[in-house]
LacI family transcriptional regulator (Rhodocytophaga rosea), 346 residues
Amino acid sequence: MKRHQTTIIDIAKELNLSKSTVSRALTGHSNVNPETRKAILDLAEKMDYQRNMLALSLVTSRSNTLGIVVPEFLTSFFPQVVIGAQEIASKAGYNVIVSHSNESYETEVANSKVMLANRVDGILVSVTKETRNFDHFKVFQRKGIPIVFFNRVCDEMSVPKVIVDDYEGAFRAVEHLIQTGKKRIAHLAGPDSLLISRKRLNGYLDALRKYNLPLIDELVISYDLTVEKAKIYVKHLLELPEPPDALFAINDPTAIEAMQVIKAKGLTMPEDIAVVGFSNDYASSLIEPGLTTVAQPIREIGKNAAQLLLDQMDREVSDWKAMTKILKTELIIRGSSSRNMPTSGH
């Protein structure tokens, strides 16, 4: 059976009216007889009529649609950001298209082209771990389409950004480990292509410096954020002649993976080795022991990013402001780093 989407022509034929009358009624023009308007709207609902937003955008130069490009959906972080952004967008009368790049630069480039083809009015972006070239996003700037980066941002583009204080969060996490008596603190870092990886690494290094602990190269490993590599590197750290007595992980999925390896080795937390993550992922309070982590205001990241985007859209391009909004983090201490804390929960 051939697919057919109801059009204005179908409604006009059914009611023996002109296309222009039907069009005016559907777009809310006042110069249509109330009875005629009711008949048109009733039939449109009955026939599942959907306005052709793409055609409408060609006429109005607005699609009333925002795009969101995220690198992954494996953890609860990006879905929660999207929920926050969608809440603000919906209140302002915008639809949202979400695309997922699966940590692939090529997919991200393809996704950005889909957003352009759908004539989005603005776009929110968090880049993949592979992204080092940003030409595909600079196209939006050239076309006068506002863009806001969040979480994983592009430093070389002068556009609004929403981030958390990654440096401060990492510093406090490592300081906490030092204050519990840990001295050989390892760091499983993210890829250095990501600004968040570099900032969290700097927070780790500065905490060690502040407390005069040595910087031990073999205890810092930068990796590609895959589960397989996390397992390999944690095993490697635990099998060193002098293994670490604590681990600060780039994010909670890495920390949780590390905890599984630690348990499999028959070691206890935090006595043999303490673990701290970053992000306060949903699972971090459910595992045993509970994971100490740096909590980010995840939905607020999405809300702030969407609001910044809407603010840009209300201004002339010449009035756009490339502000960076930095949100605060909070250290949540659980059983993986402190024996005085409950094994799970806040």
Q: What stands out?
A: Residues 54-60, 342-346 have pLDDT under 50 and may be disordered.
